[in-house]
Amino acid sequence: MDLQQQQGGVHEIDQRSPKIPKFDLNQNDDVAESPLSTLRIKKLSDKAVVPSRASFLSAGYDLSSAAEITVPARGKALVPTDLSIGIPEGTYARIAPRSGLALKKSIDVGAGVIDGDYRGPVGVVLLNHSDVDFEVKCGDRIAQLILQKIVTPEVLEVEDLDSTVRSTGGFGSTGV
């Protein structure tokens, strides 16, 4: 009897993820041990949760609350994670919203840049765009931490800049 007959004519699809080989950091012990190539996490309390990615290809590491906090309707609150971080050289950490919280609860994130030399506690500014209070429990996933490469060239003051087709056209100048 085939699957279609077993399920009464309903087609089921196997949705398991394909096996993806793990990257072996031990291939180069210098890379595995270097603080320049790892995200280093320090828990500041027993309520802190070490960030993790939901899947192998997830861009962000989930950040969790280390406290119970109410984000008031149309308001904001600073939610502690009780974590300090050390990020790889040549990157900065960006705190971004979780798509589910944004869609379902109208929760956004503000003030999301963590510089490479910051070693203090990481907090998440949650913005509540809804008309009802948002309750955060200890351990709730509240945001995601995304590492991004950064370029910080020297600043050079000049008298003029090269001309372009767009020139000084600003807001809405490239569309109709």
Description:
The protein is mainly beta. It has a domain at 38-149: Distorted Sandwich (Deoxyuridine 5'-Triphosphate Nucleotidohydrolase, Chain A), CATH 2.70.40. It is 9% helix and 28% strand. The chain contains three helices and eleven strands. The strands form four sheets. The protein has a four-stranded antiparallel β-sheet, with no helix packed on it. The chain has a three-stranded antiparallel β-sheet with strand order 4-9-7. The chain is globular and about 55 Å long. Involved in nucleotide metabolism via production of dUMP, the immediate precursor of thymidine nucleotides, and decreases the intracellular concentration of dUTP so that uracil cannot be incorporated into DNA.
The CATH topology of the domain at 38-149 corresponds to Deoxyuridine 5'-Triphosphate Nucleotidohydrolase, Chain A
Overall average residue pLDDT: 85
Q: Strand fraction band?
A: 25-35%
Extract low-pLDDT stretches: 1-8, 10-14, 20-32
Task: Characterize the largest beta sheet: strand count, sense, and whether it forms a barrel.
Answer: 4 strands, antiparallel
User: CATH superfamily membership of the domain at 38-149, which one?
Assistant: Deoxyuridine triphosphatase (dUTPase)
Strand order of the largest sheet: 2-11-6-8
Distance between the termini: 60 Å
What is the overall number of helices? Answer: 3
CATH architecture assignment name of the domain at 38-149: Distorted Sandwich
Domain dUTPase-like: 47-175
Region (Disordered): 1-28
Cofactor: Mg(2+)
Pathway: Pyrimidine metabolism; dUMP biosynthesis; dUMP from dCTP (dUTP route): step 2/2
